[in-house]
Design a protein that fits this description.
This protein has 17 helices and 6 strands. With about 375 residues, it is mainly alpha-helical. It has one domain.
Length: about 375
């Protein structure tokens, strides 16, 4: 059965607590007001201009900063600024930032340059795989869990890597290795996508090379100050990129990993995956300045065409139409820490998350 056929099925679907769920995503989309799809070009350009100004301002300030505490603060600001640009680029990849497809492509590619992401490779992996197969075993590669048996078969190095990447501080390592490195740098696209991905690879590599060389020159490469030249590259480019990786990795993690979110092998349907495979997290208002309402993640998965600034209104419409289905909670540091301790291994047969100790204990006779 095709994805479209599954989406349009009217067979009843029920939530784990027994409450009735909509029979298809079409029913959920129909509950979203048409006003949530309005994409004024001026608003999109305004968000892009604001975020670019913030990023460039942070880079300039970082160049002139010398006090360790100021450099640290500006690193954080720059990392968040790159993340903000990336989220807008992500919206453009979905066709949600502007109504014009060409404008989405041009601006989206530009917005993803500071994070060194290939626009078309991102569209393939994120739009066509992650969103179409959210939390489906063997398909959704974003924070895909391993079973206790899988972990037991790993060698020592693979176990250490898994323990790092699924730890409280490992989100950046997971994202940069499993998504950026594998899906951007080392990615071999299908034939249909080769031309676009190779074009973006050339664009990103050229910009990265020219930018790095320019920063080396600013740091004194030609005057013989090699140490300062390398330090400036680390200061302006490498550390902000690594911080971006952690910020986005953590963001993706809290969207899809939770003791109450089950990855599915049997009984997977698009409507169940998109309504229960992610959450709505209430965050401090300042977060949305950088993250553009992406923590209101359920309506984004229901319909990626909704611009980021309409996600809150769309979420309210979905909750009103289908009460008790959507998970909404306040984002707390304690919940994140508890989740990273509890969600290490997953049993697809029972739908349960386990810690390492409890998961491996299930294998004992």
């Amino acid at each position: 059965m095709t994805i479209d056929a599954v989406v349009r099925t009217r067979e009843p679907v029920r939530h784990d607590d027994g409450s009735a769920m909509p029979g298809s995503l079409i029913e959920v989309i129909d509950a979203i007001p048409e006003s949530c799809y309005v994409q004024p070009t001026a608003r999109g350009i305004g968000l892009v201009a604001r975020d670019l100004a913030l990023y460039l301002g942070a880079i300039v300030a970082l160049y002139f900063a010398h006090a360790w505490w100021l450099v640290g603060l500006l690193w954080l600001l720059t990392g968040f600024s790159v993340a903000g640009l990336f989220v807008l680029g992500h919206d453009a990849a979905h066709g949600a930032l502007f109504a014009n497809r060409r404008l989405n492509g041009v601006v989206g590619r530009m917005l993803m340059l500071p994070s060194l992401h290939l626009f078309d490779a991102w569209k393939l992996g994120h739009n066509h795989i992650h969103h179409r197969h959210t939390t489906k075993q063997g398909m959704d590669f974003v924070w895909h869990p391993v079973t206790p048996a899988d972990f037991a078969e790993m060698n020592t190095m693979k176990r250490l890597i898994h323990r790092l990447e699924w730890s409280m501080l490992g989100a950046g390592a997971y994202y940069l290795r499993n998504i950026w490195l594998k899906r951007m740098v080392l990615f071999t696209p299908p034939a249909k996508w080769v031309r676009g991905v190779n074009r973006d690879r050339l664009l990103v590599s050229t910009v990265a090379t020219v930018t790095t060389f320019g920063v080396l020159v600013l740091g004194g490469l030609f005057s013989g100050d090699i140490f300062n030249a390398v330090w400036l590259v680390m200061k302006l480019l490498v550390v902000p990129f690594l911080l971006f990786g952690w910020i986005i990795g953590w963001t993706v993690y809290v969207h899809h990993i939770d003791p109450r979110i089950a990855w599915l092998r049997k009984g997977w349907t698009p409507v169940k995956a998109q309504l229960t495979g992610t959450t709505i997290l209430r965050v401090p208002k300042g977060f949305n300045f950088f993250f553009h309402w992406i923590f209101v993640h359920v309506p984004h998965h229901v319909d990626v065409r909704i611009p980021c600034y309409h996600l809150t209104r769309a979420a309210e419409a979905i909750k009103d139409a289908f009460p008790g289905i959507v998970a909404e909670r306040k984002m707390r540091l304690g919940d994140y820490i508890r989740t990273t301790r509890a969600c290490k291994l997953f049993d697809f047969d029972t739908g349960r998350w386990y810690s390492y100790r409890r998961g491996l204990a299930t294998l004992k006779p």
